[in-house]
Design a protein that fits this description.
single chain, 527 residues, alpha/beta, TIM Barrel, CBS-domain, eight-stranded parallel β-barrel, three-stranded mixed sheet, 20 helices, 20 strands, 16% strand
Length: 527
């Protein structure tokens, strides 16, 4: 199948024409630019292009950044953290969701460890905890405290049930704090004066009940008298007072989170555990998503877990995008070899420069309802604007988020400067440490001393709170959209047009002719 000007041509034209029905127009300003570049045999990266400005009445503050990572998983901020073992575990995923974005938990963890990381995100902020963790009244206080430590729970409040499964009390952090004998039973320290609610009460009424009765925990009792859920006051208050307006939350007011999976047996094992923890979506995480095994896995997951969105990648060609959408993909991850720690293009000799890759894939599936995530190659906030203008609805960041407080790993010091480790999932260290990394690059059966890495590992300066990084990048994106007169990302798609720039143009774009005496928070020279 060949990609034509309208997005498709060939035998499947009748089927794929539906891709265009929900677009206001099939032809966009940028199409002529990319057609011309294609005719010249050129593919564009971020350093090759700049966006044309236009008449505008849009100020940066007026911009609406809402978008999607997949068909059914929205974003309030179009930034997603990469599923890398030095970038995204629960701390990063929590921070990203609170900032309006999304975190994808990496699969360098065991399936059980990964599902626990997902649970930590989903339990972090709960409007309604549908499946609270119970303790039994005859358990000892010490055994429950050991469970809390072993499971890594960040909470200490639990409904208490008897041997018959009936709700008999509530135990809280205060009860544990003031207990001096760890051998006594939970029954001895729990509160038996229970205020409860039913399953259908609106969250506004729940809030008023908790406020009036000064209760921090409100169990939900089902028709048969069983505990059907639990509300936490701090979370309900945050929801009701607007403190969570920027949070990316699901219909139950829980933070959204995704998880990376492999193909075949790895995907089956992880899906069984992740689905039980309420994961919002999964990402089939392979170096090349357009393979028989990846497509077979995609179809199997969509059949067995129809309520969970599946994003698949990575790809960089329009034909691949078409095949994956026709196979049932809910989102596409675009980018092969463009990451700062990736050597795939050098080692394997493949890949398309990122701006053209994003454009080609997004054009190929216009009107399908399947969003594109641009993954790799982003150095500056302006690159985010360019990636979205080329057709992406979100970007995936690795290096720009690496080195923050929320990333896994300890801060290390070298010659008085603080750093954190950052490595590609195709680096030798990652592949030696994780079967998932070897599988991602098709080397699962290789001996650890016979690996062919497609990435490197190193360190990046410690950057502090990830919120500061997101603030600067979102600010740059807002400015860029304001220059184009685009109020929404959809308008950015439709209004964007490009200049191709020369090496001199790129040099002119950077500060030049001076010695910088003060570093800007959103600019670092490329060494």
């Amino acid at each position: 199948m060949k990609i034509g000007k309208g997005g498709y041509c060939g035998k499947k034209i009748e089927k794929i024409c539906v891709f265009h029905k929900d677009r206001r127009r099939d032809t966009m300003k940028k199409d002529a630019f990319f057609d011309k570049m294609d005719a010249l045999g050129l593919a564009m990266s971020f350093g090759d292009v700049r966006l044309k400005t236009g008449h505008t009445s849009i100020l940066p503050a007026d911009v609406d950044l809402s978008s999607r990572f997949s068909r059914n998983v929205p974003l309030k901020c179009p930034i997603v953290s990469s599923p890398m073992d030095t970038v995204t575990e629960h701390n990063m995923a929590i921070a990203m969701a609170k900032l309006g974005g999304l975190g994808i938990i990496h699969r360098g963890l065991s399936p059980k460890e990964q599902s626990t990381e997902v649970a930590k995100v989903k339990f972090y902020l709960n409007g309604l905890i549908k499946k609270p963790i119970f303790v039994k009244s005859d358990q000892s206080v010490g055994s429950v405290l050991r469970m809390i430590e072993e499971k890594g729970f960040s909470f200490r409040s639990f409904p208490v049930i008897d041997q018959a499964g009936n709700l008999v009390g509530i135990v809280t952090g205060n009860d544990f704090e003031f207990c001096t004998n760890l051998d006594v039973s939970i029954r001895a320290i729990m509160s038996q004066e229970l205020l409860t609610t039913d399953e259908n009460k609106p969250v506004e009424e729940v809030y008023e009940m908790m406020l009036k009765n000064k209760k921090k925990i409100l169990p939900v009792v089902g028709k048969d008298g069983e505990c059907a859920g639990m509300y936490i006051y701090s979370d309900i208050k945050r929801i009701m007072t607007g403190g969570s307006s920027q949070f990316n939350i699901d219909s139950n007011s829980n933070l959204r989170v995704g998880a990376a999976i492999g193909v075949g047996d790895d995907a089956r094992e992880r899906m069984e555990l992740l689905s039980k923890k309420g994961v919002d979506l999964v990402v089939i995480d392979t170096a090349h998503g357009d393979t028989e095994t990846a497509i077979a896995t995609l179809k199997e997951i969509k059949k067995n877990y129809p309520g969970i969105d599946v994003v698949i990648g990575n790809i960089s060609e329009g034909d691949s995008a078409v095949r994956l959408v026709e196979a049932g993909a809910d989102g596409l991850r675009v980018g092969q070899g463009g990451g700062s720690i990736c050597t795939t293009r050098i080692v394997a000799g493949i890949g398309c420069p990122q701006v053209t890759a994003v454009y080609n894939c997004s054009k190929a599936v216009r009107g399908s309802g399947v969003p594109i995530c641009a993954d790799g190659g982003i150095e500056y906030s302006g690159d985010i604007t360019v990636a979205l203008a080329a057709g992406a609805e979100s970007v995936m960041l690795g290096k720009m988020l690496a080195g923050t407080e929320e990333t896994p790993g300890d801060v290390i010091f070298r010659q008085g400067t603080a750093y954190k480790t950052y490595r590609g999932m195709g680096s030798l260290g990652a592949m030696q440490a994780s079967k998932a990394s070897r599988e991602r690059y098709g080397q699962v059966s290789s001996d650890k001393d016979k690996l062919v890495p497609e990435g490197v590992e190193g360190v990046v300066p410690f950057k502090g709170d990830v919120g500061n990084i997101i603030f600067q990048n979102v600010g740059g994106l807002r400015s860029g959209m304001g220059y184009l007169g685009a109020r929404t990302i959809l308008e950015l798609h439709e209004k964007s047009d490009f200049h191709r720039i020369s090496g001199a143009g790129l040099s002119e774009s950077h500060p030049h002719g001076i010695h910088m005496t003060e570093e800007a928070p959103n600019y670092k020279p490329i060494c």
